[in-house]
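Students often ask what a holo structure prediction actually looks like on paper. The answer is less mysterious than it sounds. You provide the chain, you provide the ligand, and the output is a string of discrete structure tokens encoding the 3D arrangement of the protein together with glutathione.
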Amino acid sequence: MNPNGLVPTIDDGGFVLWESNSIIRYVCSKYAPHLSPADPQARAGAERWMDWQLTTLLDPINAIFRPLVRKMGTPDAAAIETARVQCVQHFAILDNVLARQSFMTGATFGIADCCIAPVAHRWLSLPVERVAAPHLEAWYAGVLERPCSAVLELPLS
Ligand SMILES: N[C@@H](CCC(=O)N[C@@H](CS)C(=O)NCC(=O)O)C(=O)O
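The corresponding structure tokens follow.
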């Protein structure tokens, strides 16, 4: 179904789609259009965080998650520390945003929150030192209260 042999991959009535953020966009547009802002600037602002998650946030998270949780390769303490510092900086950016608005999508929960929440779950669960990010932590606690957030309660694996 996915030439890359990776998850997530969905089959929606014969329509096969992979790439997590494309899946979020598709599922929201078909089944929950209220999660995507209609205003072009609000939508671009939200989608910017989805692109940033893929291009900037995931690499340092995975540089910690893969060796420490998935046990892939031999942990390199210096590389993990470099990634940790990058994560602290990246999550400070999110904390700043969430000091000014309730959700990564804007005033209401939406597509950008669906995409950032699983990465925040990893970051807040990794066995590394973090810097307090009160707005991020309050936002994440709110996400955990939402229906369908049970997957975020699972331990990292
Ligand atoms: N850019 C892809 C990355 C997909 C990816 O790397 N998936 C990982 C899990 S997060 C995977 O399938 N790894 C192999 C495995 O878990 O068996 C996306 O966002 O969907």
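DSSP finds five helices and two strands in the chain.
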